[in-house]
Amino acid sequence: MPSLPPQALSSQAPSSPAPSSPALSSQAPSSQALPTAVQPLPTPADLATAGPLPSPAELALLFPLSADDTERIARHRRTVGDVLDRRDGRLMVVVGPCSVHDTAGALEYADRLAGAARRFEDDLVVVLRAYLEKPRTVTGWTGLLNSPEYDGTGDLDAGLRLGRSLLTDAVATGLPLAYEFVDPALAPYVADTVSWGAIGARTVASQPHRHLASWLPMPVGMKNCVSGRLDTAVAAVQAAAHSHTLPAVSYDGRLTTLRSTGNRSAHLVLRGGPVPNYDRAGVAAARAALAAAGLPERVVVDASHGNSGKDHNRQPGVVADLAAQIADGDRSLAGVMIESYLADGRQDPGGGRPRPDLSVTDACVGWTRTVPLLETLAQAARRRAA
Ligand SMILES: O=C[C@H](O)[C@H](O)COP(=O)(O)O
Ligand SMILES: C=C(OP(=O)(O)O)C(=O)O
């Protein structure tokens, strides 16, 4: 990889907007005359003012992983695969904030979780949710990578730098990281730091996301649709297991053709819908759908989202139900997801800066309520193993 001076990575945005192209603007009808669905395409001048982004290689040079980090991430990925394949009898717990909006707050949380992960390591494989992109039902803040200032201005260049620096710091805590891949073009900037990936309920039907999962070098969970349907996610697991040809941003930032090998560790994540699906009947229905598709009967269950009606106060009840199923010996339950952060609840920051310790997206269970949940799951996993 060529070594580049940091100034070579800076955005090329000029200080004042470039004039619009007279040739193009004289051809384009005025926007008032256009039906709302027909917007003029960006002009070459618009594109020039946006400035280039660093390539994944350039960003990794600024915020590198050490050889030890890379070796540890490879080990974490194998461990998660072993849990999914039941070669490792522990339970995976993917836990952490709905989204990272404050890097200091996220790292404080990661430090606390790293301590808890060591405490429960005989029974649990604890994975930190380090989600920097948010899919929205309609509109809203789309995450630190796209909008690091939480003001909707969308400074992707700054977001990539802040996001990668957070991920490499989080890796240094020794925890495996979980990440939802929302925009396939951004995956090469972050994928080397991730040990468990997710394709979310709003993108699981998308072919580019399934193809991306077939290339990602870690186990990837496919979430059931927002509607609660399982078949789309089951089809995504099948699609991801195959080899595909896909366009992808290469390490040096060029659009390239990639031939994926297929991801044999893709699996189903139950996140509920209008009706929860974490209970024994929901898990049994998932096992039946996987068996009918000829897939391994293994699931991760998300205690939040549709399974708690986005009410964080209901997550402990969901976890208790799952713990009972696990303690009773259900070996198809490979993992549990919990949305948890430093403080309990969520905020809607008006115009000001958000509180660093409180979620700006979905409500989370606070840290003091999270530790007993980990304890409950560890006891359940120990009983199952025995
Ligand atoms: O996980 C977070 C949210 O559930 C997801 O981003 C959708 O949020 P929204 O329905 O508020 O847009
Ligand atoms: C958006 C998320 O979940 P889902 O896709 O299940 O809504 C999430 O886990 O942050």
From TrEMBL:
Keyword Amino-acid biosynthesis attached: yes
Pfam families xrefs: DAHP_synth_1
Recorded metabolic or biological pathway in which this protein acts: Metabolic intermediate biosynthesis; chorismate biosynthesis; chorismate from D-erythrose 4-phosphate and phosphoenolpyruvate: step 1/7
Biased composition (Low complexity): 1-15, 21-35
One GO BP annotation of this record: chorismate biosynthetic process
Family assignment from sequence similarity: Belongs to the class-I DAHP synthase family.
Name the UniProt record assigns to this protein: Phospho-2-dehydro-3-deoxyheptonate aldolase
